[in-house]
Hints:
Helix content is 47%, strand content 7%. Helix 7 runs parallel beside helix 10, helix 10 packs antiparallel against helix 11 and helix 11 packs across helix 16. The radius of gyration is 22 Å and the shape is globular.
Amino acid sequence: MKTALYWFRYDLRLADNPGWTQLTATQDSALGVFVLPQQWFRQGRYQCKGIDRHRLIFLLESLRDLREQLRQVGSDLVVLQGDPVTEVVALAQQLNVGAVAVGDHPGSDEADQVARVKAELDVPLYISENFTLFDRAELPFAVNDLPNVFSQFRKLIEKRPPTRALPIAPPLRTRVMLGDIYCELDSLCVQFARNNETLPSNSLHFSGGTHAGMQQLDYFLFESHLIANYKQTRDQLDGWDFSSKLSPWLAFGCLSARQVVESIRRYESKHQANESTYWLYFEILWREYFQWLAYRAGKKMFALRGIQNKNPLLSFYPNEFMAWCYGNTASDFVNAFMRQLLNTGWMSNRGRQIVASYLINELGVDWRYGAAWFEQQLIDYDVAANWGNWQYLAGVGTDPRGRRHFNIEKQQQTHDPDLTFTHHWIQP
């Protein structure tokens, strides 16, 4: 009897995880592994790291939650640091596993990792779809034929519900014993534990893990009924209740897009369906579009000329970029958003568009530096949505109208006319 290994990445849950379900249905025992990539902590080509404290703490909390889920079904979680390919292959060989499974992901680096692991393993590697709302087979087009603009995609897909039911994993037949395998999760959690000294008092305090994600989903829909007015409140700039705040749990796969959509449909059936309930689904579809765009575009998602192969006529100005990053530009409105991001790891969708436009259009900085800074800072960083949106705003992505240029003064008059938001983050 051999143990199977499930390699968790951006699917930190057991519910609605087809790969885990398949593994536990066909294997006597299964063990989870997560590898924290060392490259995330190194400064990359755009002078940014791959992760900072807010998302790291959220991730560690999510891993602790996942470990408890696994232990409840007779499994466990090994957490390691290093090169994911090297660590997964070494662990598979150490345990003499009979199979390895992993969830698919639209990131090109993630795809390269899976290809390398598959080449080095001498046991089967099973790849499942669990990050998108729709599976490839459910799309009404081939991925290479994805429409070039979102509106075309939406019209083709918005009335097509996913056909795959949410899977329920069977219990393991044999409990897994970790034995002498070293797990770094506890030491990492001690090192990066959330406390009053780690996060400032004005943090939003997102809590990682499936349990917290399901609580927030239930709160926004069924407890508070905030979803019923979502379209009217979604452009606010600060606070907790004006938007769903589900994006961090979706980004790490603590919740699946299908779970969110199923809850929206349940709310509409039980309470009401209106423009606001549709709008939350609409934004899930935007997320979905960027995932398939990333699958289609591959490494073009990170190219200066974008998927359009169009010169954005931008350069890199170090002083301007650093002033933008730390909220020291000539615009206090922009500075307020950037300091909000530094202090909380989060920024409203409206804010993200405003500060991106400012970096691109007012400062003339290469959009990729802004995307990389968001990658480092955002608690809800999603490779497809982040780089896809930055391309969109820079005029090299999916927007046929070209570069989006926001009038910063008009945006402040519309969204912060009494300067409440600005003065909250920038003391007058």
